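task queued by scheduler; priority normal; single chain, no ligands, no partner chains; default sampling; output format set to C-alpha cells
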Amino acid sequence: MTVARPIRLGINIDHVATVRNARGGEHPCPVRAALAAMEAGADGITAHLREDRRHIKDRDMERLRAEVPLPLNMEMAMTEEMLSLALRIKPHAVCLVPEKREEVTTEGGLDAVKLEAKLLPYVDKLQQNGSRVSLFIAPSEAQVQAAKRIGARVIELHTGAYAEYCLNPTQAGEAQTELAHLTAAAHLANSLGLETHAGHGLTFANVAPIARLPGVMELNIGHFLIGEAIFTGLGEAIRTMRRHIEAA
C-alpha cells in the first residue's frame, strides 16, 4: 500500500504586520501569530521583508528567527541590502522574489532566465551561509531549467494566474490550462532533482489541484488565511486548510 506523502504547510504572516502598521504600535504581533500558527500545525513560517517595509520590519525577522522554533522562510528581493540582512539573520530558507514598489502584492514570478548571471552570486552566498534558496518562478520550462543552472535547490511555482482564473467561472478553461503548465513544470523540476513548492492566491476552494501537483512538497499560504482568521480564528483557518490539503 502506498502511504500518502505529507505536504508541508508554510504560513505567511505578512498581513498581521500590515494590520499592526495601519495604526503603529505592537498589536497585532507577527511573532504571536507565528506561534499560534505553529500550535495549529504549521510546518514553517514565511515572511517577506520588502524594501519599503510596508508590513514586516527588520525587527520582526530577527524575532521570528530567535523566538519561533519553526523553519523561517525569508522572502526577499535581489538587492544588496536584503542580501546583507539575510546573511546576518540566517533564516532556514530564502525565497528570491521580484519586487516593485508600486505593486500591491507580488505580481509574477522572478525572471530567472533574464537574471541568471545576477542570481548566481546571490544563490551561492546564501547557500554558503546555510540557507536553502528557492526561486519564485512562473511555471515554464525555461524558468525551471534556469533555476537548475543557477544552483537553487528549490523552486516555488507562482500559482497566482491559476488562482485568478479560478475566481471567474467563465475562465475555467484558462484555469485548466494554467494548471497544466504548473503540472508540467513540477514534472520537470522533479526530473532535475529540484524540490518543488507552490504558492500565491491559494484558498480553500482552489488548493486541492495544487496539492496534487507531482512531487510538490510545500505550499506557502498567507493572505487568505489571515483574512479567514478574522472570522474563525487563525488556528481554525489553518486546520481547515490542512484538511483540504490532506483530502487532496
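post-processing summary
- The chain has one domain: 8-247.
- The domain at 8-247 is CATH 3.20.20.70 (TIM Barrel).
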